[in-house]
Design brief:
Layout: H1 2-13, E1 17-19, E2 22-24, E3 33-38, H2 41-56, E4 66-70, H3 78-94, E5 102-107, H4 138-150, E6 156-161, E7 164-167, H5 170-176, E8 187-195, H6 196-199, E9 203-207, E10 219-228, H7 232-237, E11 242-244, E12 248-253, E13 257-260, H8 261-281, H9 287-292, H10 302-307, H11 316-329, E14 334-338, E15 343-346, H12 350-358, H13 363-371, E16 377-378, H14 382-385, E17 393-395, E18 398-399, E19 403-405, E20 409-412, E21 415-416, E22 421-424, E23 428-431, E24 434-435, E25 449-452, E26 456-464, E27 470-478, H15 502-507, E28 509-510, E29 519-520, E30 522-525, H16 528-543, H17 547-553, E31 561-562, H18 564-570, H19 573-585
Parallel strand pairs: 3-4, 3-5, 5-6, 8-14, 16-17, 17-20, 18-21, 19-22, 20-23, 21-24, 22-25, 23-26
Antiparallel strand pairs: 1-2, 6-13, 7-15, 8-12, 8-13, 9-10, 9-12, 10-14, 11-12, 26-27, 27-30, 28-29, 30-31
Protein backbone atom coordinates (compact mmCIF):
# COMPACT_ATOMS: atom_id res chain seq x y z
CA UNK A 1 0.00 0.00 0.00
CA UNK A 2 3.01 2.31 0.22
CA UNK A 3 2.49 3.33 -3.41
CA UNK A 4 -1.10 4.31 -2.59
CA UNK A 5 0.12 6.70 0.07
CA UNK A 6 2.77 8.14 -2.24
CA UNK A 7 0.06 8.53 -4.91
CA UNK A 8 -2.28 10.34 -2.49
CA UNK A 9 0.38 12.68 -1.12
CA UNK A 10 1.43 13.64 -4.64
CA UNK A 11 -2.24 14.22 -5.49
CA UNK A 12 -2.46 16.63 -2.53
CA UNK A 13 0.77 18.37 -3.60
CA UNK A 14 -0.98 19.70 -6.70
CA UNK A 15 1.65 18.64 -9.27
CA UNK A 16 1.39 16.15 -12.12
CA UNK A 17 3.29 12.95 -11.42
CA UNK A 18 4.06 9.41 -12.57
CA UNK A 19 4.09 6.10 -10.63
CA UNK A 20 4.81 2.66 -12.14
CA UNK A 21 4.48 4.06 -15.66
CA UNK A 22 1.04 5.54 -14.96
CA UNK A 23 0.77 9.31 -15.43
CA UNK A 24 -1.56 11.35 -13.24
CA UNK A 25 -2.81 14.90 -13.36
CA UNK A 26 -3.54 16.46 -9.98
CA UNK A 27 -5.83 19.00 -11.69
CA UNK A 28 -8.20 16.25 -12.78
CA UNK A 29 -10.43 15.08 -9.91
CA UNK A 30 -10.57 11.32 -9.36
CA UNK A 31 -13.81 11.34 -7.41
CA UNK A 32 -16.43 13.83 -8.55
CA UNK A 33 -17.83 13.77 -5.04
CA UNK A 34 -16.99 12.26 -1.65
CA UNK A 35 -19.97 11.83 0.67
CA UNK A 36 -19.65 11.14 4.39
CA UNK A 37 -22.80 10.23 6.31
CA UNK A 38 -23.58 11.23 9.88
CA UNK A 39 -26.24 10.07 12.31
CA UNK A 40 -27.50 13.55 13.22
CA UNK A 41 -27.30 17.22 12.30
CA UNK A 42 -24.88 17.94 15.17
CA UNK A 43 -22.56 15.14 14.02
CA UNK A 44 -22.78 16.50 10.47
CA UNK A 45 -21.55 19.92 11.66
CA UNK A 46 -18.75 18.26 13.63
CA UNK A 47 -17.63 16.28 10.56
CA UNK A 48 -17.79 19.37 8.35
CA UNK A 49 -15.55 21.28 10.78
CA UNK A 50 -12.91 18.55 10.61
CA UNK A 51 -13.03 18.30 6.82
CA UNK A 52 -12.88 22.08 6.49
CA UNK A 53 -9.80 22.11 8.71
CA UNK A 54 -8.14 19.51 6.49
CA UNK A 55 -8.93 21.52 3.37
CA UNK A 56 -7.72 24.81 4.88
CA UNK A 57 -4.42 23.27 6.02
CA UNK A 58 -3.67 21.63 2.66
CA UNK A 59 -4.35 18.06 3.77
CA UNK A 60 -6.92 17.26 1.07
CA UNK A 61 -6.68 17.40 -2.73
CA UNK A 62 -7.49 20.99 -3.68
CA UNK A 63 -10.17 20.06 -6.20
CA UNK A 64 -11.97 17.62 -3.89
CA UNK A 65 -15.73 18.12 -3.60
CA UNK A 66 -17.24 16.68 -0.44
CA UNK A 67 -20.58 16.65 1.33
CA UNK A 68 -21.62 15.48 4.78
CA UNK A 69 -25.20 14.20 4.75
CA UNK A 70 -26.99 13.41 7.99
CA UNK A 71 -29.65 10.81 8.53
CA UNK A 72 -33.01 12.15 9.70
CA UNK A 73 -32.51 12.99 13.40
CA UNK A 74 -33.57 10.37 15.95
CA UNK A 75 -34.05 7.79 13.20
CA UNK A 76 -32.06 4.55 13.10
CA UNK A 77 -32.42 3.56 9.46
CA UNK A 78 -29.22 1.56 8.93
CA UNK A 79 -26.59 1.96 6.22
CA UNK A 80 -29.11 0.97 3.54
CA UNK A 81 -31.64 3.55 4.70
CA UNK A 82 -28.82 6.09 4.86
CA UNK A 83 -27.88 5.23 1.25
CA UNK A 84 -31.46 5.89 0.15
CA UNK A 85 -31.40 9.23 1.99
CA UNK A 86 -28.08 10.20 0.35
CA UNK A 87 -29.37 9.37 -3.14
CA UNK A 88 -32.46 11.52 -2.66
CA UNK A 89 -30.51 14.51 -1.31
CA UNK A 90 -27.95 14.23 -4.12
CA UNK A 91 -30.69 14.06 -6.75
CA UNK A 92 -32.35 17.15 -5.29
CA UNK A 93 -28.97 18.93 -5.51
CA UNK A 94 -27.72 17.70 -8.90
CA UNK A 95 -30.89 16.49 -10.69
CA UNK A 96 -30.06 14.15 -13.59
CA UNK A 97 -26.40 15.24 -13.51
CA UNK A 98 -26.12 12.93 -10.50
CA UNK A 99 -25.91 10.04 -12.97
CA UNK A 100 -22.68 11.46 -14.42
CA UNK A 101 -20.81 11.48 -11.10
CA UNK A 102 -18.26 9.09 -9.62
CA UNK A 103 -19.11 9.06 -5.92
CA UNK A 104 -17.29 7.67 -2.89
CA UNK A 105 -19.86 7.10 -0.13
CA UNK A 106 -18.41 6.56 3.36
CA UNK A 107 -20.96 5.42 5.94
CA UNK A 108 -19.75 7.06 9.15
CA UNK A 109 -22.96 7.79 11.03
CA UNK A 110 -23.06 6.36 14.55
CA UNK A 111 -21.91 6.89 18.11
CA UNK A 112 -19.26 4.14 18.30
CA UNK A 113 -20.73 2.61 21.44
CA UNK A 114 -17.99 -0.03 21.57
CA UNK A 115 -15.32 2.67 21.21
CA UNK A 116 -16.52 5.73 23.18
CA UNK A 117 -13.26 7.56 22.48
CA UNK A 118 -14.69 8.05 18.97
CA UNK A 119 -18.22 9.01 20.01
CA UNK A 120 -17.85 12.79 19.79
CA UNK A 121 -15.50 13.38 16.85
CA UNK A 122 -16.36 10.20 14.94
CA UNK A 123 -14.54 6.97 14.20
CA UNK A 124 -13.84 8.18 10.67
CA UNK A 125 -11.51 10.82 12.17
CA UNK A 126 -9.69 8.46 14.55
CA UNK A 127 -5.91 8.79 14.50
CA UNK A 128 -3.75 6.23 12.72
CA UNK A 129 0.04 5.84 13.14
CA UNK A 130 0.86 5.84 9.42
CA UNK A 131 4.37 7.08 8.63
CA UNK A 132 3.16 9.32 5.79
CA UNK A 133 2.64 12.99 6.61
CA UNK A 134 -0.83 13.38 5.11
CA UNK A 135 -2.25 10.10 6.41
CA UNK A 136 -3.34 11.08 9.92
CA UNK A 137 -6.72 9.44 10.41
CA UNK A 138 -9.11 6.88 8.99
CA UNK A 139 -10.60 9.37 6.51
CA UNK A 140 -7.14 10.01 5.02
CA UNK A 141 -6.50 6.28 4.92
CA UNK A 142 -9.78 5.64 3.10
CA UNK A 143 -9.03 8.32 0.54
CA UNK A 144 -5.57 6.92 -0.16
CA UNK A 145 -6.84 3.33 -0.37
CA UNK A 146 -9.83 3.83 -2.71
CA UNK A 147 -8.97 6.83 -4.90
CA UNK A 148 -6.92 4.84 -7.47
CA UNK A 149 -10.08 2.88 -8.37
CA UNK A 150 -11.73 6.13 -9.46
CA UNK A 151 -9.18 7.01 -12.15
CA UNK A 152 -10.77 4.77 -14.81
CA UNK A 153 -14.12 4.20 -13.12
CA UNK A 154 -17.37 5.04 -14.88
CA UNK A 155 -20.09 6.93 -12.97
CA UNK A 156 -21.64 5.14 -10.01
CA UNK A 157 -21.47 4.87 -6.23
CA UNK A 158 -18.62 3.16 -4.36
CA UNK A 159 -19.64 2.25 -0.79
CA UNK A 160 -17.53 1.70 2.31
CA UNK A 161 -17.83 2.09 6.09
CA UNK A 162 -15.61 3.69 8.72
CA UNK A 163 -14.33 0.64 10.60
CA UNK A 164 -12.72 -1.56 7.95
CA UNK A 165 -9.60 -1.39 5.82
CA UNK A 166 -8.62 -3.14 2.62
CA UNK A 167 -5.26 -3.39 0.91
CA UNK A 168 -4.58 -3.63 -2.83
CA UNK A 169 -1.86 -3.35 -5.44
CA UNK A 170 -1.97 0.13 -6.98
CA UNK A 171 -1.48 -1.08 -10.57
CA UNK A 172 -4.36 -3.56 -10.25
CA UNK A 173 -6.64 -0.89 -8.81
CA UNK A 174 -6.03 1.35 -11.79
CA UNK A 175 -6.77 -1.53 -14.18
CA UNK A 176 -9.83 -2.58 -12.16
CA UNK A 177 -11.39 0.85 -12.55
CA UNK A 178 -12.52 -0.10 -16.08
CA UNK A 179 -14.79 -2.79 -14.60
CA UNK A 180 -16.88 -0.40 -12.54
CA UNK A 181 -20.03 0.93 -14.19
CA UNK A 182 -20.06 -1.11 -17.41
CA UNK A 183 -23.31 -2.40 -18.89
CA UNK A 184 -22.35 -5.93 -17.81
CA UNK A 185 -21.84 -5.03 -14.15
CA UNK A 186 -24.67 -3.50 -12.12
CA UNK A 187 -22.76 -4.45 -8.97
CA UNK A 188 -19.05 -5.07 -8.46
CA UNK A 189 -18.35 -6.76 -5.12
CA UNK A 190 -14.75 -6.64 -3.90
CA UNK A 191 -13.81 -9.93 -2.26
CA UNK A 192 -11.00 -10.86 0.10
CA UNK A 193 -9.89 -14.25 1.37
CA UNK A 194 -10.44 -14.36 5.13
CA UNK A 195 -10.05 -17.03 7.82
CA UNK A 196 -13.37 -18.60 8.78
CA UNK A 197 -13.25 -16.99 12.24
CA UNK A 198 -13.49 -13.62 10.47
CA UNK A 199 -15.80 -14.78 7.68
CA UNK A 200 -18.53 -15.87 10.12
CA UNK A 201 -19.06 -12.22 11.14
CA UNK A 202 -19.21 -10.82 7.61
CA UNK A 203 -20.77 -11.44 4.23
CA UNK A 204 -19.44 -14.42 2.29
CA UNK A 205 -19.38 -14.35 -1.54
CA UNK A 206 -19.73 -17.49 -3.66
CA UNK A 207 -18.12 -17.13 -7.10
CA UNK A 208 -19.67 -19.05 -9.97
CA UNK A 209 -16.70 -21.23 -10.83
CA UNK A 210 -15.84 -24.88 -10.40
CA UNK A 211 -12.17 -24.21 -9.84
CA UNK A 212 -10.95 -21.07 -8.18
CA UNK A 213 -7.75 -19.54 -9.47
CA UNK A 214 -5.43 -20.67 -6.69
CA UNK A 215 -2.97 -17.91 -7.46
CA UNK A 216 -5.66 -15.43 -6.40
CA UNK A 217 -4.56 -13.10 -9.13
CA UNK A 218 -6.65 -10.21 -10.34
CA UNK A 219 -9.85 -11.80 -11.68
CA UNK A 220 -13.57 -11.14 -12.14
CA UNK A 221 -16.10 -13.89 -11.34
CA UNK A 222 -19.83 -14.16 -11.86
CA UNK A 223 -21.63 -13.97 -8.52
CA UNK A 224 -23.34 -17.20 -7.57
CA UNK A 225 -24.71 -16.20 -4.13
CA UNK A 226 -24.10 -14.02 -1.08
CA UNK A 227 -24.43 -15.29 2.49
CA UNK A 228 -24.62 -12.90 5.43
CA UNK A 229 -22.73 -13.89 8.61
CA UNK A 230 -22.97 -17.68 8.11
CA UNK A 231 -21.74 -19.88 10.93
CA UNK A 232 -18.45 -21.74 10.48
CA UNK A 233 -20.39 -25.02 10.29
CA UNK A 234 -22.60 -23.59 7.55
CA UNK A 235 -19.58 -22.30 5.63
CA UNK A 236 -18.09 -25.80 5.70
CA UNK A 237 -21.30 -27.75 5.08
CA UNK A 238 -22.25 -25.64 2.06
CA UNK A 239 -18.68 -25.71 0.69
CA UNK A 240 -18.39 -21.94 0.89
CA UNK A 241 -14.70 -22.18 1.79
CA UNK A 242 -11.50 -23.35 0.15
CA UNK A 243 -7.95 -24.07 1.25
CA UNK A 244 -5.15 -21.54 1.20
CA UNK A 245 -1.61 -22.83 1.71
CA UNK A 246 -0.81 -20.04 4.18
CA UNK A 247 -4.14 -19.39 5.93
CA UNK A 248 -5.79 -22.83 5.82
CA UNK A 249 -9.58 -22.75 5.37
CA UNK A 250 -10.67 -19.35 4.00
CA UNK A 251 -13.73 -17.79 2.37
CA UNK A 252 -14.29 -14.81 0.09
CA UNK A 253 -15.63 -12.07 2.38
CA UNK A 254 -17.30 -8.75 1.64
CA UNK A 255 -15.91 -5.27 2.21
CA UNK A 256 -16.55 -2.43 -0.21
CA UNK A 257 -18.83 -2.58 -3.22
CA UNK A 258 -19.88 -0.49 -6.20
CA UNK A 259 -23.16 -0.10 -8.04
CA UNK A 260 -23.87 1.63 -11.33
CA UNK A 261 -26.31 4.52 -11.59
CA UNK A 262 -28.87 2.16 -13.12
CA UNK A 263 -29.25 0.96 -9.53
CA UNK A 264 -29.19 4.55 -8.23
CA UNK A 265 -32.21 5.39 -10.40
CA UNK A 266 -34.18 2.44 -9.05
CA UNK A 267 -33.21 3.16 -5.45
CA UNK A 268 -34.41 6.75 -5.92
CA UNK A 269 -37.84 5.45 -6.96
CA UNK A 270 -37.78 3.05 -4.01
CA UNK A 271 -36.97 5.98 -1.70
CA UNK A 272 -39.85 8.08 -3.01
CA UNK A 273 -42.29 5.24 -2.44
CA UNK A 274 -41.16 3.91 0.95
CA UNK A 275 -38.82 6.31 2.78
CA UNK A 276 -41.50 8.04 4.85
CA UNK A 277 -42.62 4.65 6.16
CA UNK A 278 -38.97 3.68 6.83
CA UNK A 279 -38.52 6.88 8.88
CA UNK A 280 -41.78 6.66 10.78
CA UNK A 281 -41.34 2.97 11.61
CA UNK A 282 -37.56 3.34 12.15
CA UNK A 283 -36.87 0.38 9.90
CA UNK A 284 -33.16 -0.45 9.74
CA UNK A 285 -32.01 -1.45 6.25
CA UNK A 286 -28.49 -2.85 6.03
CA UNK A 287 -26.69 -2.05 2.78
CA UNK A 288 -24.75 -5.32 2.93
CA UNK A 289 -27.44 -7.66 4.21
CA UNK A 290 -30.39 -6.24 2.26
CA UNK A 291 -28.80 -4.95 -0.96
CA UNK A 292 -26.47 -7.89 -1.57
CA UNK A 293 -28.19 -11.07 -0.36
CA UNK A 294 -30.65 -11.08 -3.28
CA UNK A 295 -27.72 -11.06 -5.76
CA UNK A 296 -26.32 -14.01 -7.69
CA UNK A 297 -27.43 -16.71 -10.12
CA UNK A 298 -28.35 -18.99 -7.22
CA UNK A 299 -29.41 -16.28 -4.77
CA UNK A 300 -31.52 -16.98 -1.72
CA UNK A 301 -35.23 -17.35 -2.25
CA UNK A 302 -37.37 -14.67 -0.62
CA UNK A 303 -38.21 -17.02 2.26
CA UNK A 304 -34.53 -17.90 2.77
CA UNK A 305 -33.66 -14.22 2.78
CA UNK A 306 -36.39 -13.33 5.28
CA UNK A 307 -35.29 -16.21 7.50
CA UNK A 308 -31.88 -14.53 7.88
CA UNK A 309 -33.63 -11.57 9.52
CA UNK A 310 -35.15 -11.42 12.98
CA UNK A 311 -38.59 -11.60 11.40
CA UNK A 312 -40.33 -12.65 14.62
CA UNK A 313 -40.12 -9.02 15.77
CA UNK A 314 -40.80 -7.43 12.37
CA UNK A 315 -44.10 -5.69 11.69
CA UNK A 316 -45.98 -5.85 8.41
CA UNK A 317 -44.46 -2.57 7.13
CA UNK A 318 -40.93 -3.87 7.60
CA UNK A 319 -41.67 -7.20 5.94
CA UNK A 320 -43.32 -5.44 2.99
CA UNK A 321 -40.47 -2.98 2.48
CA UNK A 322 -37.72 -5.62 2.71
CA UNK A 323 -39.70 -7.92 0.41
CA UNK A 324 -39.94 -5.17 -2.21
CA UNK A 325 -36.26 -4.31 -1.81
CA UNK A 326 -35.42 -7.99 -2.34
CA UNK A 327 -37.47 -8.00 -5.55
CA UNK A 328 -35.72 -4.82 -6.72
CA UNK A 329 -32.25 -6.34 -6.28
CA UNK A 330 -33.01 -9.89 -7.37
CA UNK A 331 -31.08 -11.08 -10.44
CA UNK A 332 -29.17 -7.84 -10.92
CA UNK A 333 -25.97 -8.37 -12.88
CA UNK A 334 -23.32 -8.79 -10.21
CA UNK A 335 -19.64 -9.66 -10.36
CA UNK A 336 -17.12 -10.60 -7.68
CA UNK A 337 -13.73 -8.94 -8.06
CA UNK A 338 -10.83 -10.83 -6.46
CA UNK A 339 -7.48 -9.10 -6.43
CA UNK A 340 -3.96 -10.40 -5.86
CA UNK A 341 -3.22 -10.73 -2.15
CA UNK A 342 -5.90 -8.22 -1.28
CA UNK A 343 -6.64 -8.21 2.45
CA UNK A 344 -9.50 -7.11 4.69
CA UNK A 345 -9.16 -5.82 8.26
CA UNK A 346 -11.91 -4.84 10.69
CA UNK A 347 -11.42 -2.47 13.65
CA UNK A 348 -14.80 -2.24 15.35
CA UNK A 349 -13.77 -2.68 18.99
CA UNK A 350 -10.98 -1.56 21.32
CA UNK A 351 -9.60 -5.11 21.43
CA UNK A 352 -9.50 -5.34 17.62
CA UNK A 353 -7.71 -2.00 17.53
CA UNK A 354 -5.15 -3.00 20.15
CA UNK A 355 -4.46 -6.34 18.54
CA UNK A 356 -4.01 -4.79 15.09
CA UNK A 357 -1.76 -1.99 16.33
CA UNK A 358 0.34 -3.90 18.85
CA UNK A 359 0.24 -7.72 18.61
CA UNK A 360 3.74 -9.00 17.86
CA UNK A 361 2.74 -12.64 17.34
CA UNK A 362 -0.43 -12.56 15.26
CA UNK A 363 0.48 -12.81 11.55
CA UNK A 364 -2.58 -10.84 10.45
CA UNK A 365 -1.74 -7.97 12.83
CA UNK A 366 1.87 -7.88 11.67
CA UNK A 367 0.78 -7.84 8.03
CA UNK A 368 -1.83 -5.16 8.77
CA UNK A 369 0.80 -2.81 10.17
CA UNK A 370 3.19 -3.56 7.31
CA UNK A 371 0.55 -3.09 4.61
CA UNK A 372 -0.66 0.23 6.03
CA UNK A 373 2.85 1.54 6.80
CA UNK A 374 2.17 1.90 10.50
CA UNK A 375 4.87 2.87 12.97
CA UNK A 376 5.10 2.94 16.76
CA UNK A 377 5.66 6.68 17.10
CA UNK A 378 3.90 9.35 15.04
CA UNK A 379 4.03 13.16 15.31
CA UNK A 380 4.92 13.54 18.98
CA UNK A 381 7.63 14.80 21.30
CA UNK A 382 9.10 11.49 22.45
CA UNK A 383 12.22 11.85 20.36
CA UNK A 384 12.81 15.44 21.40
CA UNK A 385 12.58 14.84 25.13
CA UNK A 386 14.59 11.61 24.83
CA UNK A 387 11.99 9.53 26.66
CA UNK A 388 13.14 6.03 25.79
CA UNK A 389 11.00 4.23 28.36
CA UNK A 390 8.30 3.66 25.76
CA UNK A 391 7.05 0.36 24.44
CA UNK A 392 3.63 1.42 23.19
CA UNK A 393 2.12 3.09 20.15
CA UNK A 394 2.16 6.88 20.55
CA UNK A 395 0.35 9.30 18.22
CA UNK A 396 0.29 13.09 18.31
CA UNK A 397 1.30 13.39 21.97
CA UNK A 398 3.78 14.97 24.36
CA UNK A 399 5.09 12.42 26.87
CA UNK A 400 7.18 13.74 29.77
CA UNK A 401 10.46 12.19 30.84
CA UNK A 402 8.97 10.70 34.04
CA UNK A 403 6.24 8.83 32.15
CA UNK A 404 6.58 5.09 31.68
CA UNK A 405 4.61 3.46 28.89
CA UNK A 406 4.49 -0.30 29.23
CA UNK A 407 4.10 -2.68 26.32
CA UNK A 408 0.86 -2.82 24.38
CA UNK A 409 -0.34 0.65 25.31
CA UNK A 410 -1.82 3.09 22.80
CA UNK A 411 -1.51 6.82 23.51
CA UNK A 412 -3.14 9.45 21.29
CA UNK A 413 -3.55 13.23 21.64
CA UNK A 414 -2.16 13.30 25.18
CA UNK A 415 -0.02 15.85 27.00
CA UNK A 416 1.78 14.72 30.17
CA UNK A 417 4.28 17.26 31.53
CA UNK A 418 7.87 16.49 32.51
CA UNK A 419 7.42 16.85 36.28
CA UNK A 420 4.65 14.30 36.71
CA UNK A 421 5.31 10.66 37.51
CA UNK A 422 2.89 8.59 35.43
CA UNK A 423 2.89 4.86 34.74
CA UNK A 424 0.72 3.53 31.92
CA UNK A 425 0.51 -0.22 32.21
CA UNK A 426 0.02 -2.92 29.56
CA UNK A 427 -2.99 -3.25 27.27
CA UNK A 428 -4.22 0.30 27.91
CA UNK A 429 -5.72 2.90 25.60
CA UNK A 430 -5.21 6.52 26.70
CA UNK A 431 -6.84 9.16 24.53
CA UNK A 432 -7.26 12.94 24.65
CA UNK A 433 -5.86 13.20 28.20
CA UNK A 434 -3.78 15.92 29.78
CA UNK A 435 -1.99 16.41 33.07
CA UNK A 436 -0.14 19.64 33.90
CA UNK A 437 0.61 20.48 37.52
CA UNK A 438 -0.04 24.18 36.99
CA UNK A 439 -3.58 23.39 35.80
CA UNK A 440 -4.32 21.00 38.62
CA UNK A 441 -6.16 21.99 41.82
CA UNK A 442 -4.13 19.51 43.85
CA UNK A 443 -2.40 21.45 46.63
CA UNK A 444 0.43 19.03 47.35
CA UNK A 445 1.85 17.05 44.44
CA UNK A 446 4.88 15.70 46.31
CA UNK A 447 5.07 11.95 45.95
CA UNK A 448 2.21 11.92 43.42
CA UNK A 449 2.50 8.88 41.18
CA UNK A 450 -0.41 8.40 38.81
CA UNK A 451 -1.15 4.98 37.35
CA UNK A 452 -3.36 3.88 34.51
CA UNK A 453 -3.87 0.19 35.39
CA UNK A 454 -3.60 -2.67 32.92
CA UNK A 455 -6.51 -3.17 30.49
CA UNK A 456 -8.05 0.26 31.20
CA UNK A 457 -9.28 2.61 28.48
CA UNK A 458 -9.42 6.30 29.47
CA UNK A 459 -10.50 9.31 27.42
CA UNK A 460 -11.28 12.97 28.22
CA UNK A 461 -14.25 14.72 26.63
CA UNK A 462 -14.85 18.48 26.53
CA UNK A 463 -18.41 19.49 27.33
CA UNK A 464 -20.60 22.54 27.77
CA UNK A 465 -22.82 21.83 30.77
CA UNK A 466 -26.48 22.82 31.15
CA UNK A 467 -25.39 26.37 32.11
CA UNK A 468 -23.02 26.50 29.11
CA UNK A 469 -19.91 26.31 31.30
CA UNK A 470 -16.77 24.68 29.89
CA UNK A 471 -16.12 21.40 31.72
CA UNK A 472 -14.18 18.21 31.15
CA UNK A 473 -15.28 14.64 31.79
CA UNK A 474 -12.87 11.71 31.72
CA UNK A 475 -14.50 8.38 30.95
CA UNK A 476 -12.94 5.00 31.72
CA UNK A 477 -13.69 1.29 31.48
CA UNK A 478 -11.96 -2.05 31.16
CA UNK A 479 -11.24 -3.02 27.57
CA UNK A 480 -13.11 -6.30 28.16
CA UNK A 481 -16.24 -4.66 29.64
CA UNK A 482 -19.31 -5.24 27.47
CA UNK A 483 -20.30 -1.62 26.95
CA UNK A 484 -23.56 -2.28 25.08
CA UNK A 485 -24.86 -5.14 27.21
CA UNK A 486 -28.19 -4.58 29.00
CA UNK A 487 -28.19 -6.05 32.52
CA UNK A 488 -31.15 -7.02 34.72
CA UNK A 489 -30.02 -4.85 37.65
CA UNK A 490 -27.30 -2.36 38.55
CA UNK A 491 -25.50 -4.87 40.81
CA UNK A 492 -25.00 -7.17 37.81
CA UNK A 493 -23.14 -4.62 35.67
CA UNK A 494 -19.54 -5.60 35.04
CA UNK A 495 -17.55 -2.37 35.17
CA UNK A 496 -13.76 -2.14 35.23
CA UNK A 497 -13.85 -5.93 35.38
CA UNK A 498 -15.85 -6.02 38.65
CA UNK A 499 -19.18 -5.22 40.30
CA UNK A 500 -20.41 -2.30 42.43
CA UNK A 501 -20.83 -3.16 46.11
CA UNK A 502 -24.13 -2.51 47.90
CA UNK A 503 -23.02 0.82 49.35
CA UNK A 504 -22.14 2.17 45.92
CA UNK A 505 -25.34 0.85 44.33
CA UNK A 506 -27.30 3.21 46.59
CA UNK A 507 -25.20 6.17 45.37
CA UNK A 508 -25.11 5.47 41.63
CA UNK A 509 -27.89 6.57 39.34
CA UNK A 510 -28.50 4.65 36.12
CA UNK A 511 -30.59 6.24 33.37
CA UNK A 512 -33.23 4.02 31.77
CA UNK A 513 -31.70 0.60 31.12
CA UNK A 514 -28.94 -0.97 33.21
CA UNK A 515 -25.82 -0.67 31.07
CA UNK A 516 -22.43 1.03 31.23
CA UNK A 517 -23.62 3.63 28.73
CA UNK A 518 -26.37 4.64 31.17
CA UNK A 519 -24.25 4.83 34.34
CA UNK A 520 -24.11 8.39 35.75
CA UNK A 521 -20.66 7.84 37.16
CA UNK A 522 -18.31 10.18 35.30
CA UNK A 523 -17.58 13.45 37.12
CA UNK A 524 -17.17 16.87 35.49
CA UNK A 525 -14.12 19.01 36.33
CA UNK A 526 -12.97 22.53 35.48
CA UNK A 527 -9.73 21.46 33.75
CA UNK A 528 -8.53 18.48 31.74
CA UNK A 529 -5.80 17.90 34.34
CA UNK A 530 -8.26 17.69 37.25
CA UNK A 531 -10.52 15.46 35.20
CA UNK A 532 -7.71 13.02 34.43
CA UNK A 533 -6.51 13.10 38.06
CA UNK A 534 -10.00 12.40 39.44
CA UNK A 535 -10.44 9.52 37.02
CA UNK A 536 -7.12 7.92 38.02
CA UNK A 537 -7.99 8.25 41.71
CA UNK A 538 -11.44 6.73 41.20
CA UNK A 539 -10.04 3.79 39.23
CA UNK A 540 -7.45 3.08 41.94
CA UNK A 541 -10.06 3.29 44.72
CA UNK A 542 -12.48 1.09 42.80
CA UNK A 543 -9.96 -1.63 41.95
CA UNK A 544 -8.65 -1.67 45.53
CA UNK A 545 -12.19 -1.60 46.98
CA UNK A 546 -11.74 1.57 49.07
CA UNK A 547 -15.45 2.10 49.66
CA UNK A 548 -15.17 5.16 51.91
CA UNK A 549 -13.12 7.04 49.30
CA UNK A 550 -15.62 6.09 46.60
CA UNK A 551 -18.51 7.30 48.77
CA UNK A 552 -16.77 10.69 49.00
CA UNK A 553 -16.51 10.74 45.20
CA UNK A 554 -20.30 10.54 44.94
CA UNK A 555 -21.02 13.28 47.47
CA UNK A 556 -21.34 16.05 44.90
CA UNK A 557 -24.59 17.29 43.37
CA UNK A 558 -26.23 14.84 40.99
CA UNK A 559 -25.75 17.29 38.11
CA UNK A 560 -21.96 16.84 38.43
CA UNK A 561 -22.15 13.27 37.10
CA UNK A 562 -22.69 12.19 33.53
CA UNK A 563 -23.38 8.96 31.72
CA UNK A 564 -21.95 8.26 28.26
CA UNK A 565 -25.27 9.12 26.60
CA UNK A 566 -25.25 12.53 28.37
CA UNK A 567 -21.88 13.28 26.82
CA UNK A 568 -23.31 12.90 23.32
CA UNK A 569 -25.68 15.75 24.19
CA UNK A 570 -23.18 18.03 25.96
CA UNK A 571 -19.98 17.17 24.08
CA UNK A 572 -18.09 20.24 22.83
CA UNK A 573 -16.59 19.05 19.55
CA UNK A 574 -15.20 22.51 18.69
CA UNK A 575 -13.02 22.55 21.82
CA UNK A 576 -11.89 18.97 21.16
CA UNK A 577 -10.97 19.75 17.54
CA UNK A 578 -9.04 22.82 18.68
CA UNK A 579 -7.18 20.79 21.32
CA UNK A 580 -6.23 18.07 18.83
CA UNK A 581 -5.16 20.54 16.17
CA UNK A 582 -2.60 22.01 18.59
CA UNK A 583 -0.55 18.82 18.20
CA UNK A 584 -0.20 19.48 14.47
CA UNK A 585 0.36 23.25 14.71
CA UNK A 586 2.97 23.36 17.49
Amino acid sequence: MEKNFIFYEKLISGFDFEIDGFKFSSSKPCWDLVVVTSISLSQKICYEKQLELKLNTGKLPKNLNYLVINDPDDCKIGSGGSTLNVIKILYDKYNDNLYNLKILLIHAGGYSQRMPSCSILGKIFSAVPCKFEFINDIFDLKMAIYTPFAINMKPGIFITSSDDFETFFLSEQIQAGHLFGTDENDFVLLAHKSPLEIAKDHGVYIPDTESLDRSFSFKLYECKAVYQKPSIDKIKNLNLCFNDENLGHVAFTDSVFFFAHKITRDLLKFHDKYFEIIKESKIEIDAYRDFLQPLGKQAHSLQEYLSTLNNSTMDQNEIEILTNLYSLMKLRKSKILAMTESNFYHLGTVNELMSSYLDLCDKNAIKFRHDLCFQRIKSNELRKNKNTDNHGCVMNSFIGTKCKLNQNSIIEFCYFCHNISLTIRENTFVSNCMFKLNECSLKDSNGLNLIVPANVCIHTISIKDAENNQKYVTIFFNRNDDLKKIYSQLQSIVFLGGHFNESLVEKIHCENKFSIWNLKIFQASDTMSDSFLNACIFIANYLENRTSNLMDYFNKQTSSYYCLFDLLKYGDYEDMIKYRNNFFVN
